[in-house]
Amino acid sequence: APFLTYYVNTIIIVGGILAAQLVTITLAGYAFARVSFSGRELFFSLFIFQLLTPITVLVVPNFLTMKSLHLVDHKLAIMLPYMASGFGTFLMRQAFRTVPRELEEAARVDGALWWQVLRHVYLPATRATLVAFAVVSITFHWNDFIWPLLVTNTPRSRPLTVGLASFTQASESGAQFPLIMAGTLLVMFPLLLAFLLFQRQFINSFVRSGLK
Fold this sequence. Notes:
Elements: H1 3-34, H2 40-52, H3 59-68, H4 75-79, H5 86-97, H6 101-109, H7 114-125, H8 127-143, H9 146-151, H10 160-168, H11 177-211
Helix pairs in contact: 1-5, 1-8, 1-10, 2-5, 6-7, 8-11, 10-11
């Protein structure tokens, strides 16, 4: 099994999703927390409703959308549906609302634009929340299976989870449990190593985001 290809695909998919999510949830969270516009509460309610919608309900329409865009069996097909996050938007909105308005007003008096206020005032104060969300996002998308299974057909776009499933079915003599366990260890090892190396930072990020 081409596990090196699966590793590269997974890193690209997980990293691309996280990068897009950090941008979208930061901007959306700031808008819902600090920008006054018509229909703000209605739009935020729609984001919250997204949290109540099971992912499996969206599988068929998302697949048809990817098929119409000719993105089936492409890494972008796995990434696109997750580039916005209702959970992340809610998390950042709550975090931004804890930042004192006096800090923003002081920055604006000094002539800072909205994006400078966001970058230099809000983001440093909510770094722990961003780290906590990043941990959740990386873990979820590293282990995601159903959606990548539906939109990938060849090893060139498969992530580790789908590659492992194909690997376990490749033997003609039945399940090879030693090989399956070795493949499973290869899939989980990066996350396990990251947790062992950065467990204190992980725990502190969740504690701080919870206190906010």
